[in-house]
Amino acid sequence: MNLFRLAGDMTHLLSVVVLLLKIHTIKSCAGISLKTQELYAIVFAARYLDLFVHFMSLYNTIMKLVFLASSFSIVWYMRQHKIVRRTYDKEHDTFRHQFILLPCLVLALLINEKFTFREVMWAFSIYLEAVAILPQLVLLQRTRNIDNLAGHYVFFLGAYRALYILNWIYRYFTEPHFVHWISWIAGIVQTLLYADFFYYYITSWKNNVKLELPA
Amino acid sequence: DAPSTKKDEL
Protein backbone atom coordinates (compact mmCIF):
# COMPACT_ATOMS: atom_id res chain seq x y z
CA MET A 1 0.00 0.00 0.00
CA ASN A 2 1.64 3.23 -1.13
CA LEU A 3 0.86 6.72 0.05
CA PHE A 4 -0.85 7.74 -3.19
CA ARG A 5 -3.28 4.85 -2.94
CA LEU A 6 -3.97 5.42 0.76
CA ALA A 7 -4.53 9.14 0.13
CA GLY A 8 -6.75 8.23 -2.83
CA ASP A 9 -8.85 5.83 -0.78
CA MET A 10 -9.17 8.38 2.04
CA THR A 11 -10.22 11.12 -0.39
CA HIS A 12 -12.73 8.77 -1.96
CA LEU A 13 -14.04 7.85 1.49
CA LEU A 14 -14.22 11.54 2.35
CA SER A 15 -16.27 12.33 -0.75
CA VAL A 16 -19.03 9.82 0.05
CA VAL A 17 -19.01 10.19 3.84
CA VAL A 18 -19.01 14.00 3.71
CA LEU A 19 -21.87 13.91 1.21
CA LEU A 20 -23.88 11.50 3.39
CA LEU A 21 -23.24 13.50 6.56
CA LYS A 22 -24.13 16.77 4.88
CA ILE A 23 -27.37 15.37 3.47
CA HIS A 24 -28.15 13.93 6.91
CA THR A 25 -27.35 17.22 8.67
CA ILE A 26 -28.91 19.85 6.43
CA LYS A 27 -31.67 17.42 5.31
CA SER A 28 -31.15 18.56 1.73
CA CYS A 29 -29.64 17.09 -1.43
CA ALA A 30 -29.94 20.21 -3.58
CA GLY A 31 -27.60 20.08 -6.54
CA ILE A 32 -26.86 16.39 -6.13
CA SER A 33 -27.71 14.01 -8.97
CA LEU A 34 -29.60 10.95 -7.78
CA LYS A 35 -28.69 9.26 -11.08
CA THR A 36 -24.98 9.51 -10.28
CA GLN A 37 -25.54 8.25 -6.74
CA GLU A 38 -27.49 5.25 -8.03
CA LEU A 39 -24.78 4.49 -10.59
CA TYR A 40 -22.15 4.58 -7.86
CA ALA A 41 -24.19 2.18 -5.73
CA ILE A 42 -24.25 -0.17 -8.72
CA VAL A 43 -20.48 0.28 -9.19
CA PHE A 44 -19.80 -0.86 -5.63
CA ALA A 45 -22.38 -3.68 -5.75
CA ALA A 46 -20.90 -5.04 -8.99
CA ARG A 47 -17.29 -4.69 -7.85
CA TYR A 48 -17.56 -6.00 -4.31
CA LEU A 49 -19.45 -9.21 -5.12
CA ASP A 50 -16.59 -11.24 -3.70
CA LEU A 51 -16.64 -9.27 -0.46
CA PHE A 52 -17.43 -12.37 1.60
CA VAL A 53 -15.89 -14.85 -0.82
CA HIS A 54 -12.25 -14.07 -0.46
CA PHE A 55 -10.65 -11.98 2.23
CA MET A 56 -7.95 -9.53 1.08
CA SER A 57 -7.25 -7.55 4.26
CA LEU A 58 -9.17 -5.99 7.11
CA TYR A 59 -8.67 -2.58 5.55
CA ASN A 60 -10.03 -3.80 2.22
CA THR A 61 -13.08 -5.40 3.77
CA ILE A 62 -13.93 -2.48 6.03
CA MET A 63 -13.55 0.06 3.21
CA LYS A 64 -15.77 -2.02 0.91
CA LEU A 65 -18.47 -2.20 3.58
CA VAL A 66 -18.26 1.55 4.21
CA PHE A 67 -18.48 2.37 0.50
CA LEU A 68 -21.46 0.05 0.02
CA ALA A 69 -23.25 1.33 3.12
CA SER A 70 -22.67 5.03 2.40
CA SER A 71 -23.57 4.90 -1.30
CA PHE A 72 -26.79 2.97 -0.65
CA SER A 73 -27.62 5.25 2.29
CA ILE A 74 -27.29 8.32 0.07
CA VAL A 75 -29.63 6.75 -2.49
CA TRP A 76 -32.08 5.84 0.30
CA TYR A 77 -32.01 9.42 1.68
CA MET A 78 -32.63 10.94 -1.74
CA ARG A 79 -35.44 8.54 -2.64
CA GLN A 80 -37.17 7.74 0.65
CA HIS A 81 -36.44 10.34 3.29
CA LYS A 82 -39.57 12.45 3.60
CA ILE A 83 -37.71 15.77 3.91
CA VAL A 84 -34.62 15.18 1.76
CA ARG A 85 -36.52 13.77 -1.20
CA ARG A 86 -38.42 17.03 -1.56
CA THR A 87 -35.14 18.87 -2.15
CA TYR A 88 -34.19 16.59 -5.02
CA ASP A 89 -34.10 18.45 -8.32
CA LYS A 90 -36.05 15.83 -10.29
CA GLU A 91 -36.84 17.85 -13.41
CA HIS A 92 -33.19 18.73 -14.04
CA ASP A 93 -31.69 15.36 -13.16
CA THR A 94 -32.96 13.61 -16.25
CA PHE A 95 -29.88 11.80 -17.54
CA ARG A 96 -31.12 8.36 -18.66
CA HIS A 97 -29.31 5.51 -16.88
CA GLN A 98 -29.58 3.12 -19.78
CA PHE A 99 -27.36 5.35 -21.93
CA ILE A 100 -24.61 4.57 -19.47
CA LEU A 101 -25.45 1.11 -18.14
CA LEU A 102 -25.92 -0.71 -21.44
CA PRO A 103 -22.71 0.45 -23.19
CA CYS A 104 -20.69 -0.37 -20.05
CA LEU A 105 -22.27 -3.84 -19.86
CA VAL A 106 -21.63 -4.53 -23.56
CA LEU A 107 -18.04 -3.29 -23.23
CA ALA A 108 -17.52 -5.47 -20.15
CA LEU A 109 -18.77 -8.50 -22.08
CA LEU A 110 -16.31 -7.72 -24.88
CA ILE A 111 -13.28 -6.54 -22.92
CA ASN A 112 -12.55 -8.29 -19.66
CA GLU A 113 -9.72 -10.21 -18.06
CA LYS A 114 -11.59 -13.52 -18.07
CA PHE A 115 -15.06 -14.34 -19.34
CA THR A 116 -16.48 -15.29 -15.95
CA PHE A 117 -19.40 -13.66 -14.18
CA ARG A 118 -17.20 -12.08 -11.53
CA GLU A 119 -14.61 -10.75 -13.99
CA VAL A 120 -17.27 -9.36 -16.32
CA MET A 121 -19.01 -7.68 -13.37
CA TRP A 122 -15.67 -6.28 -12.23
CA ALA A 123 -14.91 -4.83 -15.67
CA PHE A 124 -18.50 -3.50 -15.81
CA SER A 125 -17.98 -1.73 -12.48
CA ILE A 126 -14.69 -0.22 -13.70
CA TYR A 127 -16.25 1.15 -16.90
CA LEU A 128 -19.33 2.32 -15.03
CA GLU A 129 -17.28 4.19 -12.45
CA ALA A 130 -15.51 6.04 -15.25
CA VAL A 131 -18.76 7.60 -16.53
CA ALA A 132 -20.98 7.56 -13.43
CA ILE A 133 -20.20 11.23 -12.73
CA LEU A 134 -21.77 12.34 -16.04
CA PRO A 135 -25.32 12.88 -14.72
CA GLN A 136 -23.85 14.99 -11.90
CA LEU A 137 -21.79 17.11 -14.31
CA VAL A 138 -24.84 17.52 -16.58
CA LEU A 139 -26.93 18.60 -13.57
CA LEU A 140 -24.28 21.14 -12.59
CA GLN A 141 -24.25 22.41 -16.16
CA ARG A 142 -28.03 22.78 -16.17
CA THR A 143 -28.34 24.44 -12.80
CA ARG A 144 -25.58 26.77 -13.98
CA ASN A 145 -24.02 27.29 -10.62
CA ILE A 146 -23.01 24.94 -7.91
CA ASP A 147 -23.45 25.13 -4.17
CA ASN A 148 -20.58 23.82 -2.11
CA LEU A 149 -22.27 20.46 -1.42
CA ALA A 150 -21.92 19.23 -5.01
CA GLY A 151 -18.72 21.20 -5.59
CA HIS A 152 -16.84 19.57 -2.74
CA TYR A 153 -18.23 16.18 -3.71
CA VAL A 154 -16.98 16.35 -7.30
CA PHE A 155 -13.73 17.94 -6.17
CA PHE A 156 -12.92 15.09 -3.74
CA LEU A 157 -13.86 12.49 -6.36
CA GLY A 158 -11.55 14.11 -8.89
CA ALA A 159 -8.73 14.25 -6.35
CA TYR A 160 -9.23 10.54 -5.58
CA ARG A 161 -8.91 9.69 -9.27
CA ALA A 162 -5.81 11.82 -9.73
CA LEU A 163 -4.18 10.17 -6.71
CA TYR A 164 -5.04 6.73 -8.09
CA ILE A 165 -3.24 7.54 -11.32
CA LEU A 166 -0.16 8.48 -9.30
CA ASN A 167 -0.62 5.19 -7.41
CA TRP A 168 -0.63 3.23 -10.69
CA ILE A 169 2.48 5.01 -11.92
CA TYR A 170 4.22 4.27 -8.62
CA ARG A 171 3.17 0.60 -8.66
CA TYR A 172 4.12 0.21 -12.31
CA PHE A 173 7.71 1.24 -11.49
CA THR A 174 7.96 -0.62 -8.21
CA GLU A 175 6.11 -3.88 -8.82
CA PRO A 176 7.03 -6.21 -11.67
CA HIS A 177 4.16 -7.18 -13.96
CA PHE A 178 1.83 -4.67 -12.36
CA VAL A 179 -0.23 -4.02 -15.46
CA HIS A 180 -3.97 -3.35 -15.31
CA TRP A 181 -4.98 -1.99 -18.70
CA ILE A 182 -8.70 -2.05 -17.95
CA SER A 183 -8.44 0.02 -14.76
CA TRP A 184 -5.80 2.31 -16.23
CA ILE A 185 -7.64 3.28 -19.39
CA ALA A 186 -11.00 3.64 -17.64
CA GLY A 187 -9.30 5.58 -14.84
CA ILE A 188 -7.67 8.01 -17.25
CA VAL A 189 -10.97 8.57 -19.08
CA GLN A 190 -12.66 9.19 -15.73
CA THR A 191 -10.02 11.67 -14.62
CA LEU A 192 -10.23 13.55 -17.92
CA LEU A 193 -13.98 13.94 -17.37
CA TYR A 194 -13.18 15.83 -14.18
CA ALA A 195 -10.45 17.92 -15.78
CA ASP A 196 -12.74 20.53 -17.34
CA PHE A 197 -14.83 20.71 -14.18
CA PHE A 198 -11.64 21.34 -12.23
CA TYR A 199 -10.65 24.09 -14.59
CA TYR A 200 -13.89 25.99 -13.92
CA TYR A 201 -13.87 25.11 -10.22
CA ILE A 202 -10.36 26.45 -9.62
CA THR A 203 -10.74 29.55 -11.81
CA SER A 204 -13.97 30.47 -10.00
CA TRP A 205 -12.33 29.78 -6.66
CA LYS A 206 -9.33 31.96 -7.61
CA ASN A 207 -11.51 34.82 -8.81
CA ASN A 208 -13.64 34.20 -5.76
CA VAL A 209 -16.82 34.21 -7.80
CA LYS A 210 -19.76 31.83 -7.76
CA LEU A 211 -18.86 28.94 -10.05
CA GLU A 212 -20.48 29.54 -13.42
CA LEU A 213 -20.21 26.52 -15.71
CA PRO A 214 -20.48 27.38 -19.41
CA ALA A 215 -23.79 26.33 -20.93
CA ASP B 1 -9.97 -19.38 -6.99
CA ALA B 2 -8.45 -15.94 -6.85
CA PRO B 3 -9.49 -13.62 -9.66
CA SER B 4 -7.19 -13.67 -12.66
CA THR B 5 -5.10 -10.71 -11.53
CA LYS B 6 -4.79 -10.00 -7.84
CA LYS B 7 -7.34 -7.24 -7.30
CA ASP B 8 -6.18 -5.59 -4.14
CA GLU B 9 -7.40 -2.11 -5.00
CA LEU B 10 -10.83 -0.81 -4.03
UniProtKB/TrEMBL annotation, chain A:
Q: Which keywords does this Swiss-Prot/TrEMBL entry list?
A: Endoplasmic reticulum, ER-Golgi transport, Membrane, Protein transport, Receptor, Transmembrane, Transmembrane helix, Transport
Alphabetically, the GO molecular function entries are:
ER retention sequence binding
Entries under InterPro entries matching the protein: ER_ret_rcpt
Cell location? Endoplasmic reticulum membrane
GO terms for cellular component: cis-Golgi network; endoplasmic reticulum; endoplasmic reticulum membrane
Q: Where are the transmembrane segments?
A: 55-78, 99-115, 121-140, 152-170, 182-202
Biological process according to GO: protein retention in ER lumen; protein transport; vesicle-mediated transport
Q: Which domain of life is it from?
A: Eukaryota
Q: How does it sit in the membrane?
A: Multi-pass membrane protein
> Which family, according to the similarity comment?
Belongs to the ERD2 family.
Name of this chain's protein: ER lumen protein-retaining receptor
